[in-house]
Design a protein that fits this description.
- It comes from Dipteronia sinensis.
- This is Endonuclease/exonuclease/phosphatase.
- By secondary structure, this protein is α+β, with helices and mostly antiparallel strands.
- It has four domains: about 90 residues, no CATH class; about 50 residues, no CATH class; about 50 residues; about 35 residues, no CATH class.
- The strands form three sheets. Strands 1-5-4 form a three-stranded antiparallel β-sheet, with no helix packed on it. A three-stranded mixed β-sheet has the order 3-7-8, with no helix packed on it.
- Helix 3 runs antiparallel to helix 4.
- The mean pLDDT is about 75.
Length: about 240
């Protein structure tokens, strides 16, 4: 952003412009010049306080440029906001249905190829020698394109179809592998959860009188009963259990 991209009483900070320009260069972005309004942001109404700037703009990467034949931007009239809405238009590459003639080496492997060439080339053509050659080449090209489609059934379409089929198979295979891994992980989680639930039930259950009796009997006689301070040997001797 430069000083020529703003108009008004407030000038742009030179340091901010340099930082912004540095970021754009580091990211390899390309600016798309907008059509319509000269500035895309405005503040204030009077001549003394009004500030206009090319604040809102469009930046694209090299990848975006390679995907679209044409990228344009139009600054539409603003209504209530200080910012002008930007309309971005993207045009795809037009794919021509007319395929240019391309000689295929595989034609030599077909037994009918040489016969077709001889038949077309031996057909009588009237005209001067250079024009005769040109007309025969045109006829041969037309005949070979038709013959190629009838015999090989448009290999490009066949290859594209097989590629799509292969992609579908690979996608299904990936989904199956993911499902198998998911179910295995789910079974493992369920098994671990069952064990944890059993352990939790055992640890949180209220001990019975028999449990308390067995625990005290099995305890060391010199140990104490919890925080009460009474020796286990004392508990046993006085017959408190």
């Amino acid at each position: 952003m430069g000083a020529h991209e703003a108009l008004g009483s407030h000038s742009l900070a030179h340091g901010s412009c340099e930082d912004f320009r540095s970021i754009i260069e580091d990211c390899d972005l390309v600016g798309i010049r907008s059509q319509g309004a000269r500035f895309t942001w405005v503040r204030g109404r009077s001549t003394r306080t009004k500030v206009e700037s090319l604040l809102d703009r469009v930046w694209v990467s090299d990848g975006c440029i390679s995907c679209w034949q044409e990228i344009s931007c139009v600054a539409l009239p603003r209504i209530r906001s200080d910012h002008f809405p930007l309309l971005i238009r993207l045009s795809e590459f037009e794919v021509s249905s007319h395929k240019p003639f391309q000689f295929q080496s595989m034609w030599f492997q077909h037994p009918d190829f040489i016969a077709i060439v001889h038949r077309i080339w031996s057909s009588p053509v009237v005209g001067r020698p250079p024009q005769v050659v040109i007309n025969k080449l045109r006829s041969l090209k037309k005949a070979l394109k038709t013959w190629n489609y009838e015999v090989f059934r448009d290999l490009n379409s066949a290859i594209a179809g097989k590629s799509a089929e292969l992609h579908s198979i690979q996608l299904n295979l990936s989904n199956r592998v993911f499902q198998m891994i998911f179910f295995m992980a789910e079974d493992s989680v369920h098994s671990e959860l069952d064990v944890l639930l059993l352990e939790n039930a055992f640890l949180t259950r209220v001990p019975s009188a028999d449990d308390i009796h067995d625990t005290v009997i099995a305890a060391d006689v010199d140990s104490t009963l919890g925080q009460m301070g009474f020796l286990i040997d004392f508990i046993k001797d006085v017959g408190m259990l």
